[in-house]
Design a protein that fits this description.
The protein has 7 helices and 4 strands; from the N terminus they run H-E-E-H-E-E-H-H-H-H-H. The protein has helices at 26-42, 71-81, 118-126, 154-158, 162-171, 180-188, 195-200; strands at residues 50-60, 63-65, 85-96, 102-112.
Length: 202
């Protein structure tokens, strides 16, 4: 996704405790983790760099659905989410290494799941794809296609709201080398209804 903006970047792993704090809202949770990841990664980043970090979680009702513990747990989550709308929260954090200045943003997207069958769930779980995904699914999976009639940011549900990232990077005077919204929509084959407003800062 980052490559669509034409930026030069390196990937760093940030090992942080992802436990939810008592009485922490989903929005506060993903923003805290995103900023924690950014600050952890900044410890080994070049002084002239900007660290980008994100954290995404699936929320159904008042419960955060993290990564499933095993195939049985993935099946349970997928059955729970089937046929109704839940929310995906993605927290985004940018940290300018030179002065420690940080910017954060939160994307909340309503995600309507289709009425997929038990057989489809079983086949999808057997691929192993759900086991490292919050909520036990990837919206972009080419065979399962769990979501229908989405009207929000597809990229945010994937884990990186690219237009929001572009807007924040521009506040650090870092501009894309390509039209991010157009390239993103072409890549994921999705006519995004919110991209223009996000890039304007609305």
């Amino acid at each position: 996704m980052l490559s669509l903006g034409g930026w030069t970047f390196n990937v760093a792993i940030a090992d942080v405790d992802e436990s939810q704090l008592a009485d922490e809202t989903p929005g506060d949770y993903v923003l805290r983790l995103a900023e924690s990841k950014a600050r952890k990664s900044a410890e080994n980043a070049s002084a002239g760099g900007v660290v980008i970090a994100a954290d995404t979680t699936v929320v159904d009702g008042d419960e955060i659905l993290g990564k499933p513990a095993d195939a049985e747990d993935a099946t349970r989550m997928l059955k729970r989410l089937r046929g109704h709308t839940h929310q995906v929260y993605t927290g985004l954090a940018l940290l300018r290494v030179s002065d420690g200045d940080a910017l954060t943003d939160l994307s909340v997207t309503d995600v309507p799941m289709r009425e997929y069958s038990d057989e489809e769930i079983e086949a999808y779980v057997q691929t192993g794809d759900p086991l490292d995904k919050a909520g036990a699914y990837a919206i972009q999976h080419p065979d399962f296609h769990p979501v229908e009639n989405l009207h929000g940011c597809f990229a945010s549900v994937m884990g990186l709201p690219l237009c929001r990232l572009t807007y924040l990077l521009q506040r650090f005077d870092i501009f894309p080398g390509a039209a991010v919204d157009i390239r993103c929509q072409a890549e994921i084959q999705y006519d995004c209804p919110v991209a223009s407003a996000i890039l304007r800062g609305d």
